[in-house]
């Protein structure tokens, strides 16, 4: 079963990524596990300003960015990042290789919205490195940049049932970041839009279609994987379709694993909507199948695709041991999880150590690792200069000024949603400024009210010399910020696993986190005398501003 396999691989990724470091106020000792030190060429500017500030660091000449640049530094032209040539070859292969197909709504970097995309890519790569055959099945979103796909080719033309009709569907094969991907493209309006989510089509019905289209392709193509690994509510209907339809046709071999990355969304749907994919929705409106317990006795009662996936999958995995315990104790799905406890497992996520590697990261102005950490100082100053957090003057004989060494930089990279502790992020901005530190927030909000609140914060802080609030998403800038950070803040109210704290440690930053979910499984407090050997960050438990202040105080 893949849940056992993914446990070994996820923990391997995690253990390889963790760098232990002792923190004493502003000073850090950085440890990394990476490959050879290398400083890449200067970033190429498509349209550089007339005058640039040059500085010499070691044998390299650096061109420092400026807020006045016509093109922001994170939108420069970067070297190609083909991770396929970097897949580790020295990893022990499993003795019994299997074929795994991931069915998912997201995959980094081509269709990434949150951590789901990162985890799918990282796990697929880890399984490949262990000798398994792996495919990822993904909707062919109209917004996907096709130049990021290698060897893209149409492999199958077939029909998929939806709402009483058979919809012409294309399946394409390509390679993304070294991972084989099968793209499903319907001829109807599904997955047409500027973004992964939020198109003008009915999103729930689109993923119902996608779930059946994936199984239909396996049947048409004669593909019988050992494991079909589905992710989140978007593919929660696939286990129902498999066991109640396709297992009675020609798909006999596969077993199904469901990973729950975040139990915030349940995939609520009506019986009629489920029926559009060819199942009889009324059959699933019972406590032991897929009824949404919260709607029992209501008119109409509703179904939950996530609950159905839990009931019908052979194994159910969530992304950290602590989050497993939390989900068994709270939330309306707790009773369903308890009834299925024998197949429910908590396995800690890992990060993709090929994509997230400061020794080889193409987005950094300088690479670094434990034995040669000097590049981290360059990355910090580069970001500070580019965002206007330091004066453009340099000290004589020292290209990296005093402020870079002595003013701590806190980075918070997050979706701006309630789960992430918005009031604590706001308090951290205030407290960091009071204590004389610097802080950068990178993220955007889907809720208009939250977006306006942070726009107001940005307007009041972004002209100063200590705070930058950047309301956007940028993969390139996120890499640079992790490399620049002294501390990474993750103050989540709840957090199934969290990747930011692990990426931060991988890039030499100290995590400051709230003790919940996967944060509790990966970050251990410096002040915990009973756990000195594991200490690697600062941890607070309360959801109040005072608790956050106590954790931030020693850092700044």
What does this protein look like?
Helix content is 29%, strand content 19%. It has 16 helices and 21 strands. The chain has a nine-stranded mixed beta sheet. The protein has a six-stranded parallel beta sheet with strand order 18-17-16-19-20-21, sandwiched between helices. Helix 1 crosses helix 2. The two termini are 46 Å apart. 48% of the residues are buried. Residues 1-50 have low confidence and may be disordered.
Describe the structure concisely for a colleague.
This protein has helices spanning 2-17, 115-129, 203-221, 237-244, 271-275, 305-312, 321-329, 334-339, 374-386, 402-406, 422-434, 448-461, 475-484, 500-506, 517-522, 545-552, and strands at residues 23-24, 27-28, 53-57, 60-64, 99-103, 133-139, 150-162, 165-176, 179-186, 227-231, 255-260, 268-269, 303-304, 315-318, 344-346, 409-413, 438-442, 467-470, 487-490, 510-514, 538-540. With 556 residues, it is an alpha/beta fold.
Detail the poorly predicted runs. 1-50
What is the tally of beta strands? Answer: 21
With helices defined by DSSP (H or I, 4 residues minimum), what is the helix count? 16
Main sheet properties: 9 strands, mixed
Q: Using only CA atoms, what is the Rg?
A: 24 Å
Strand content: 15-25%
Q: In percent, how helical is the residue content?
A: 25-40%
| Adjacency order of strands in the biggest sheet | 7-8-9-6-5-10-11-14-15
Distance between the first and last residues' Cα: 46 Å
Shape, per Cα inertia axes: globular
| Mean pLDDT rating | 88
Secondary-structure content class: alpha/beta
Pfam families: Glyco_transf_5, Glycos_transf_1
Enzyme class: transferase
GO biological process, one term: starch biosynthetic process
GO molecular function: alpha-1,4-glucan glucosyltransferase (ADP-glucose donor) activity; alpha-1,4-glucan glucosyltransferase (UDP-glucose donor) activity
